[in-house]
Amino acid sequence: MSIETGFGEKSSQVEALTVEQVAVSESGPAVASDARSSREAPAEGSSEKHYRRPILTLSSEELDQWLHSKGEPRFRLRQLLHWLYQQPVENFEQMSDIPKALRRELARAFRLWTTRVVEHVKADDGTEKLLVRLMDGETVECVLLRDDRGHRTACVSTQVGCAMGCKFCASGLGGFRRNLSAYEIVEQLLHLTRLLPQRERLTHIVVMGMGEPLTNLKNVLQALEAATSNNGLGISGRRVTISTVGIPPAIDRLAESRKPYHLAISLHAPNDELRTQIVPSNQKIGLKAILNAADRYFAKTGRRVTFEYVLLAGVNDRLEHAAALAELLKNRTALVNVIAYNPVPELPYQTPSPARVHRFVDKLREAGLNARVRFRKGLQIEAACGQLRRRVVAQTGSGNGGPIVGGEMSTSAPPAGPASPEASPPNQENKAAN
Ligand code: SAH
Description:
- Helices cover 30% and strands 17% of the residues.
- By secondary structure, the protein is α/β, with parallel strands linked by helices.
- It has two domains: 52-112, DNA polymerase, domain 1, CATH 1.10.150; 116-396, TIM Barrel.
- The strands form three sheets. Strands 1-4-5-6-7-10-11-12-13-14-15 form an eleven-stranded mixed sheet. The protein has a two-stranded parallel ribbon with strand order 2-3.
- Helix 7 (217-228) links the parallel strand 10 (204-207) and strand 11 (240-244).
- Helix 8 packs parallel to helix 11 (287-301) and helix 12 packs parallel to helix 13 (354-366).
- Bound molecules: S-adenosyl-L-homocysteine.
């Protein structure tokens, strides 16, 4: 992902840090001091193999029914939803206004978290990045971005790895592993919420982490339903941006969902020849089909589409590229976000100088395009897609994000191994709250 910057807000705690690896246990979420964290332990009195359904797979109606079947009063649902989404706690025991016996029943029946934080890094610009381990031992990244307008933006992953193979991106380097389910996406939001002080809430979501959201659209939409519902996190749908490499049929499906989400399309080149070189999925699709889909999205939703353009030095950053891009997008209601490349150690691409970046944007503007530069936040913490996961996997030799020994980072994660001792995976119903 690429991250906007330009804001100087720093908490005193963050200010003291440059690139600091923060012990996960300090920050709260999903602390794992031994191989099985408290939130993952089998419920009291149950066998190791007792299956507990992830609670986020239940809709609010289903939670209501469950509470009703236990003879609970109507207001209990609101209390429970508060602890699930507004002030996510580590375990059912911490749901302080819920009767103790009910907390125990909840813990017997449901799994509160299926994921846990195994790495937590902070940059001195206030950006924080989490590496989150899933039940099958895979890991994904999510990021919290802060700015001085009070925006608290969550950037979430939608897949483990990525199949798109964009040449400059770290996410796809290890290939595609699997889609995330809706609750695994929602849990990223909840882990990020837990990084905020109690009076603050997430205000925006960018679906710009690892993976291609439009090839996992059903689960992404389900997760966003929980994120935007008043029974969930209550974030305005207009403050959600979905970034895609450009998959026309899925862009149409997204438009048909009639959600107010903002669409960002990763263009990165003004012609098919160059785009196919750096974004291989372009070969079978082509710019024309993608731009047509963008036009349909705008026509249907009335929401201006953003085009992302990552500048790679000597590849797509010449003034003639800017001129060609302006020609390609002319007569469109569009915004171009020009992003300086965030270098990935294993890859040969370089970041152009700031002067070159500005020249490129100026050229777009001269040609009448609405364009802006987005600088990168969290550079020190490898905030580009997939970078943190990639390094942890390289150092541990697994996708498990186990401890890094002798590296610059430390972790309170348990030894590598599946995150969950439970036998059966959760079903994939993914009925997040609605
Ligand atoms: N697959 C989706 C969303 C994930 S990537 C997409 O392609 O849009 C989100 C954005 O970050 C994309 O524009 C992607 O091209 C860009 N990106 C990936 N790696 C980057 C890097 N190292 N530096 C800057 N931007 C990067």
